[in-house]
Amino acid sequence: MLFRQTTIVTLFLVAAPTLGLGAPGQEAERTRLCETVTLAGPMVRLSELLPTDAPGTLRSRAAAIVLGSAPQPGLVRTVSGMEIKSRLMDAPDLLERLAIPDRIVIQRSYRALSTSELLQVIRLRLGAQATPDSMNWSSGDLKLPAPVYVTLDDPGLEVTRIELDPWRRETKFRLWTSKEPSILPFWVTLAHDVKISTLVARHNIPAGSEAQAVDFQVEERVGTPDGQSPVTASDLRGLQTRAPVQSGQPVTRSMLAPVVLVEPGRPAKLVAEGAHYRISTIVIPLQVGFLGQQIRVREMDSAHILSAEVVGRGELKAAP
Q1: CATH code assigned to 268-318
Q2: Which of 3-12, 65-74, 139-148, 187-196 comes out lowest in average pLDDT?
Q3: Residue ranges matching CATH 2.60.480 in the chain
Q4: 26-108 is classed CATH 2.60.480
Q5: Distances (CA, A) of 49 to 63, 104, 320
Q6: According to DSSP H, which parts of 154-270 are helical?
Q7: Which of 226, 254, 121, 137 shows the shortest CA–CA distance to 176?
Q8: Poorest-confidence range of 15-19, 43-47, 145-149, 248-252?
């Protein structure tokens, strides 16, 4: 009997490593994180630090662990092993499956904007306003003070401002990457004068005046008065000047404000129209109303609340 017991114990000890019950202190093989990683996205996830042959179940678990922001293009970020371990305090089973280096260096995949794509964006921005010789401009006509690095093939380049340097006879373009807003706007200089169709005041316009389309005209000017998009006279019709505008002064949308056409509590005319009828009545506006705005109004003879569009001074149109 003693011989049989000894044999069983011996067989159990031999089979133990195969069953995963190794000797005390022995650990299952861990997946070692990469010591250098290049990322494309703006966030760092633990799964992105795993080697390519890491098990799928491990990668899925690690994808839920966010380690913060990736560095800006052209820069690096170093993450310490202790920092990663502290993020895994609530996931001890995941921590046990990883071999974590003392530090991991993270960099961002990036590329430098080319002068050819900058020139293309400038041409698109100018459109028909570009001078006839603009097609002869070359990448060599552009000056970029320092390389600008982006991570996307299409970072959404936009021109937000155009200015003339009168001393050097150069035109400066302020650009930004709308699809990568964390990248700061930057300036590009073109070794040519560029004239832009600019809306200017036809005559002096006092402050508080309601603008009409005939108050403005278009002139060819060098550069733009500020970073706003160009406006047309029809864009400003019906708006009110915030301050006096001088004759010949370039005009932007920010220089005018909406005119209050309907005031709360002051009766206004409401018109309802259809294919075979037109009815008007007096209502009490419950909100301040600007041209084209939808506001709430109350019928005079009841407490019924309606929605109406502001179409003129003291005039509303019933919503369909």
Answers
A1: 2.30.30.760
A2: 3-12
A3: 26-108
A4: yes
A5: 10, 8, 58
A6: 233-236
A7: 121
A8: 15-19
What type of residue is 312?
Answer: G
**Range list for CATH 2.30.30.760 in the chain:** 268-318
**For residues 233-238, average pLDDT:** 81
For residue 281 the two structure tokens come to: 């009545």
List the one residue out of 199, 206, 196, 193 whose CA is nearest residue 249. 199
Mean pLDDT calculated for residue range 230-240: 80
Report the alpha-carbon distance of residue 231 to residue 209 in Å, rounded: 18
Report the distance separating Cα 228 and Cα 216, nearest Å: 17
Q: For residue 95, what pLDDT is reported?
A: 92
The Cα 159–Cα 284 span in angstroms is 46
CA distance 96 to 92: 6
Q: How far is CA 285 from CA 191, 215, 220, 305, in A?
A: 56, 31, 44, 10
